[in-house]
Amino acid sequence: MGKARRRVPVEEFVRRCKAAGLSVTPQRIAIYDAIAGNPSHPSPEAVYRRIRLTHPTIALATVYKTLDTFSRHGLVALLTPMHETVRYDPLTIQHHHMICVKCKEVVDVVDPALDEIRLPTRVRRSTKVLGYSIHFNVLCPSCRVR
Amino acid sequence: MGKARRRVPVEEFVRRCKAAGLSVTPQRIAIYDAIAGNPSHPSPEAVYRRIRLTHPTIALATVYKTLDTFSRHGLVALLTPMHETVRYDPLTIQHHHMICVKCKEVVDVVDPALDEIRLPTRVRRSTKVLGYSIHFNVLCPSCRVR
DNA sequence: CTCCATGCAAAAATTTTGCATCGAG
DNA sequence: CTCGATGCAAAATTTTTGCATGGAG
After folding, report:
1. pTM of the full structure
2. Which nucleotides on strand C sit less than 7 A from a protein beta carbon?
């Protein structure tokens, strides 16, 4: 992996925390930094392992709690709305999904127009693309009214 | 929820099992059916709960093992390549991702061209769309050579 | 007989919770 | 002093594994 970068400087993080009414602590800076400074979207476990180098007494539970706090306040986005459990798909042709961010229902979206996306050159050059799938993050009708 | 549908008839399932060299058992039919007959992409737990009605002695472990077998043989696709754990994203503007299906590394893809997808009418009409994200399933360079 | 799918129980791994403490304001 | 963030330990949940059994070919 290349060297760590920082997409958002600390000051920016602090500013966003304050805007969200969150206190800024060394742990939080470290956690945010581990995420923002790493393009690989590390898991809480991975964040924990990395952070322990500089914060040997931090608890894994703190990492979980903090990341959850961040996401509830919009400082980070949840990349895996369905992570709670594996999900499988019987439709093996390429297609897409709507995921209700609230109730986590998943609905198929089959639309030929969506299958004609031109792969970015960077993606095509650097990897072997097996396929792609678009996740529409939505509020379904029933969650919308509530 | 509407009534269950069956996207792939049993005969088709049997044919595909045979093609993959898998034996066909009542449990497997039931499991496949629970997935294929349900548009909501149920979790293994949910499949288990549903199947117990007709197969009271089935074990949850069997459901996990079977779904894993199915996906390794291409009978179903893995909808959640990152499910093992939550992942967060510090980049809160809309963007996309490459996910290596083997090592699970996630890399950002920022490309304005990808942000101009026309939302399918069905999606726009039925829900409030908060955003979307394209997941490119790829083999990264290092996994590709191995 | 051999092989593999199954069920069961145990183990492992992951995530959440309760609670006491600490520190900033 | 008060409140929220933290660390620790325990609990809960989810997933995997080992092993004995049983049926199909």
Report:
1. 0.78
2. 4-10, 14-18
The C-alpha atoms of residue A83 and residue B82 are separated, in whole angstroms, by 7
Best CA proximity match to B91, nearest among A74, A136, A126 = A74
B57 to chain A, closest Cα gap in Å = 22
Q: In angstroms, rounded to a whole number, what is the distance separating the alpha carbons of residues A116 and B77?
A: 21
C1' of nucleotide D24: residue with nearest CA? B23
Q: Cα dist. B2→A65, A98, B121, B131 in Å?
A: 37, 17, 21, 26
Domains in chain A, ordered, with CATH? 10-79 (1.10.10.10), 82-145 (3.30.1490.190)
Starting at the earlier edge strand, list the strands of the sheet with A96-100: A106-109, A96-100, A128-139, B128-139, B96-100, B106-109
Looking at residue B58, its amino acid is I
Q: Name residue, tokens 């992570």.
A: A83
Q: What is the pLDDT of residues B12-66, one digit of tens each?
A: 889 989 999 999 999 999 999 999 888 778 889 999 999 999 999 999 999 999 9
Give the Cα separation of A131 and A52 in Å (integer). 37
How far apart are the C-alpha atoms of B112 and A130, rounded to whole Å? 22
- Any idea what DSSP says for residue B79? S
